[in-house]
Amino acid sequence: MPVIRLLLWLLGAVLLGGIVHLATVLLIPLMASQDAFARVSAVAPVNTVVAIPSPTPEKALMPFMDPAFVVSICRYDLSRGPLKFSVPISQAYTSVSFYTRSDVSYYAINDRAAGRRVIELDLMTAAQRADLPENEEITAADRLIVASPTPTGLIVIRALVPEPGWLSATRNALAAAQCRPQ
Amino acid sequence: MRLLLGTAFALIAAAVVGLGATWIALTRGTAYGGVNIGAWTAWPKNGTPGIDPYARAMMARTGELPVGSGDGVAFYANADDSAQPLDGRCDVLLSGITPQARFWTVTLYDPDGRLVANSAQRQGFTSQEIIRKADGSFEIMVGPRARPGNWLPTGGVERYLLVLRLYDTPVGMATRSGREAPMPTISRGACL
């Protein structure tokens, strides 16, 4: 009899442990203080494009950054209204990736997909997008609208430096990137 | 009294089991939804809103940002083709071709994702920098001692990871095998 009782308690403990496990896995992204968004927040003011220093063995903003890329980040806050974003593409390869407040990648576009010399788009929340007047010219196909699932997040602009000699030209292209409230 | 003891035991055991499982899952790495090609593994889903909760928790802990699926895909290798862990004191030969992509880079990191210091100040190669053979394939010597050709220095660290990132590539969640995505082989040579 005591053995069965012990087994029942053990079974309960394991079930409860499973719940604890799932709860902690789901809660960690919400409580993390050293996640990518927090690291960027420490160096980047809101709604401004900030050049991120290239990673070195001594110092890197985030782990697993690709050292072949020049990176700029705009930490956005859409609570006051939508943002206009633009970056001229560099010679080799430029991409713009969007992340939510909890570092989930929800959209990414590269220079070829953009098909132009400048990647230009409007970033807004789903609610702001719904408020857009429907019959205006702004719904024209040449205006790319990205809807952010969260009011805050990150726009990461990355440009490849295929050979060391291209570094300054690539940096200059990224330096012209803009993200500002409309 | 017995009820109280039992409850206390169950709660403590639950905490140990639950937190232990979380700790193990987040430090050992997840295996869900990975695309395995040779010694390489990629998690293309991590660059989409469909990222699984374990990968999210792991990234929140390490502070990294996944490569967006519209940007590219990252393949990781921490062992060679015969499943021996990559050791910075040994020569390792990376050879073959890469899947279709507009650009790719290969980078050497320590297990925590930091670049490794070395006298040559080289942490990786881009597809533009690499010296190829006449048939388009390439060889990269990864090791502690300087080599002619494509030499990727390890700085003599004990353990490292190789990350091969493909940019603007059709490789992604639909990719299943090495026939669609031929990755370079990783073979181990002599050790110091």
Distance between the termini of chain B: 63 Å
Task: Specify Rg of chain A, calculated over alpha carbons.
Answer: 22 Å
Radius of gyration of chain B: 20 Å
Helix percentage of chain A = 25-40%
Task: Tell me how many strands of chain B there are.
Answer: 10
Number of helices of chain A: 5
Strand order of the largest sheet of chain B: 1-2-3-9-5-6
Give the percentage of residues in beta strands of chain B: 25-35%
Question: Which protein chains make the most extensive interface, counting residues with beta carbons within 8 Å of the other chain's beta carbons?
Answer: A-B, 61 and 60 residues
Query: What is the helix content of chain B?
Result: 10-25%
Strand line-up of the largest beta sheet of chain A: 1-2-8-4-5
User: How many distinct beta strands of chain A?
Assistant: 9
Kindly, what is the distance between the CA atoms of the first and last residues of chain A, rounded to a whole number of angstroms? 73 Å
Structural class based on helices, strands and sheet pairing of chain B: alpha+beta
Q: What spatial form of chain B do the alpha-carbon principal axes imply?
A: globular
Give the structural class of chain A. alpha+beta
Mean pLDDT of chain B: 90
What string gives the helices and strands of chain A in order?
A: HHEEEEEHEHEEHE
Instruction: Tell me the series of helices and strands of chain B, N- to C-terminal.
Output: HEEHEEEEEEEE
Strand residues, percent of chain A: 25-35%
Note down, in words, how this protein is organized.
The complex is a heterodimer of chains A (182) and B (192). Chain A is an alpha+beta fold. In chain A, 30% of the residues lie in helices and 31% in strands. Chain A has helices at 2-31, 36-41, 111-114, 126-130, 167-175, and strands at 49-52, 69-77, 83-88, 94-100, 105-110, 118-125, 145-148, 152-160, 178-181. Chain B is globular, with a radius of gyration of 20 Å. Chain B has helices spanning 2-28, 53-62, and strands at residues 35-37, 40-42, 72-77, 90-96, 103-109, 124-126, 138-143, 151-153, 161-167, 185-191. Chain B contains 2 helices and 10 strands; from the N terminus they run αββαββββββββ. In chain B, a hairpin with a 2-residue loop joins β1 and β2. At the A-B interface, α1, α2, β4, β5 and β8 of A face α1, α2, β5 and β9 of B.
